[in-house]
Description:
Blueprint: H1 2-24, H2 26-44, E1 51-66, H3 68-72, E2 80-81, E3 85-87, E4 90-97, E5 109-116, E6 131-138, E7 144-151, E8 161-169, H4 170-176, E9 183-198, H5 205-209, H6 219-229, E10 235-239, E11 242-246, H7 248-254, H8 256-264, E12 267-269, E13 278-284, H9 289-301, H10 306-310, H11 315-331, H12 335-347, H13 354-363, H14 367-378, H15 382-387, H16 392-396, H17 399-409
Parallel strand pairs: 10-13
Antiparallel strand pairs: 1-9, 2-4, 3-4, 4-5, 5-8, 6-7, 6-9, 10-11, 12-13
Helix pairs in contact: 1-2, 7-8, 9-11, 11-12, 12-14, 13-14, 14-17
Amino acid sequence: MAATSAAVLSAAARRISRSAAVASSGGGTHLLSAATRRMSSSRSASSSSSSIITREVTGHHNLTISGYAATRKAPVEWIASSQAFDAAGYRWRIKYYPNGNSWNESNECISIFVELADDIKGPRQEVKDPVQFKLSLLDRAGNPSPKYCRSNDASFFVDGQARFQDFIRWKELEESGCLKDDSFIVRCDITVIKKWAEDDDTVSVDSASSRVVVPPSDLHRHLYDMLWKKQGVDVAIDVAGETFEAHGWLLAARSPAFEAELLAAPKEKAPGGGAVAVRRRVEIGGMEPRVFKALLHFMYTDALPPSMMEEEEEKHGAVAMARDLLAAAHRYELERLKLLCEEMLCRCIDVDTVAGTMAVAEQHGCGALEAACAEFLARPGNLKAVMETEGYEKIKANPTMMELIMKQLV
C-alpha cells in the first residue's frame, strides 16, 4: 500500500515538472499571453443605459363672457381678448369670436382661439413641446359639461395658436342650460408634455426632480384644525353677542388692522387656566357673526368658506354675504379676500342687484366692480329696467356713479 501511494505521488510530481517546463518555453509564454488577453478583455467590457422621462405640466383658466346677447350683434370681424394668464409654464391669451371667424362657413357659431401671449418679462415665447388644449363649457354648478368639451390632439399647434373654429353654436349654447344671466364660462385646460433625456448613467438635477411629485400645500388644513379645536387660542372676539376664540399671532400676521386692535385690547385671565393663562378680548361692532365667521375662515385658510360657494346658486343670499364680507375685508385690509368678493359679485350682477352692488363698490374703492356695474347698466334696456327698481334711488343720489354710467352711455 505504501509503495502504491509513493508511485502515485511520484507520477503527480512528474506532471507538475512537465507543466513547469512547458511554461518556461515559448509555448508557455503564448498560453499565458492568451489567458492575459482574455482576462483583459473581460475587464474592459462595459454596459450603459439611458432613459427618456416625460411629464405632463398642466394648468387651467376660467374665462367668463358676460353680455352674450350684445356680442351676437357685433360685426363678424369683432374679436375680444382675455387678459394674459400663466398656465403650464407659459403665458397665454384667449380670443373670443362671438360670430365665428373668416374660416367659418357660417357665423352662427362661436370660435375660440388660445394663443401665446407676449411675455413682458423676456423675449418672445416659443413652445417646442407638444401641447394639448381642452375647452369646456361650465354648467351652473361650475363643472365642465361633458357634452360641450372640445380638445385637440397632443401636437404642435400652428403659429402659436390652437383654433377651435366651431366651439359651440348659438342655438346649442342657449339650450345647454349653461347660459346664466346673459353670461357663460369657458374653462381652458392646457397640458404641455415635457421631456428630459438621460445619457451615460448621468441624471441631471432637473430630471431627477421630475420623478418627485410634490403635493399641494396643506398648511391651511392644519391651521383650520387648530382654529376649531381651539389649540393654543389666546384671543376672545365678541361679535354681536357671539364669542369666537382665535390665535392672536395669526390674526396680527394676516391683518395690520387686527394687529392694532389686539395691541390695544385688554388682557384677562383665561377661564380654567390651561396652557394659555392670559388672553386678550376684542369686541367688534357693526358686523354679523356669520360674516365674521367667514372672515376668520379666510384668515386661516386663504379661501372663501365652502358654504359661501354653495350659496351662489341662491343669488340674493350670496350677494348679500359677498357685499358684507367685502366691507369686512376692506375694514381689516385683506386685499385678496376683497378681490374674491369682487369677483363673486361681478358674476352676480343683474337688474335687481346692480344698484346695491355698485354702491358697495363705490364706497369701498372697488374700481373693477364699479366699472362692471356701469357696463351692465349701459347695455340696451338694462338702465330702463333698473330705473323701475327701488335700488335706482341709490345710484341717482350719487353723482360719482351717475357720471360713470354716463361715460359708458356716450
